[in-house]
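Please produce the structure of this protein holding tetrahydrodeoxyuridine.
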Amino acid sequence: MTNGELLDMAIAAAKNSYSKYSRFRVGAALLTADGRVFTGCNIENASYSLTNCAERTAVFKAVSEGCTEFRAIAIAGSPSDDFTKPCTPCGACLQVLSEFCTGDFVIVLSNGFFRLSDLLPKRFTEDSMK
Ligand code: THU
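Below is the modeled complex.
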């Protein structure tokens, strides 16, 4: 699975976005350590704060299927059919990813790839509570 293939899967996943309020479609494709891919889209709600981001949809699908080891996630978001502008994951999604991923976890955007440690350098983890 190349980064480009994973990004294409994220773009395809955005087609199922339920985003009638923002009209901003987001898709994510999460690659597991054993080579499976879980996709997700953003799911909005009339009670806006209950919206679930695409990344968290993908993570929750994977965890609920017994997968908790991840290698990479690709993310694509756009208000149109043009997904060339990068869609950086929000802080909430980075925190959810950090529960399961180490700093070298790869985040693929349309303009290249980053590490979780690049985007969330100082993480709150279970160690923070000791
Ligand atoms: N959104 C995501 O799905 N992922 C992100 O990382 C950022 C934002 C969604 C939430 C909402 O449905 C729309 O994009 C506009 O914020």
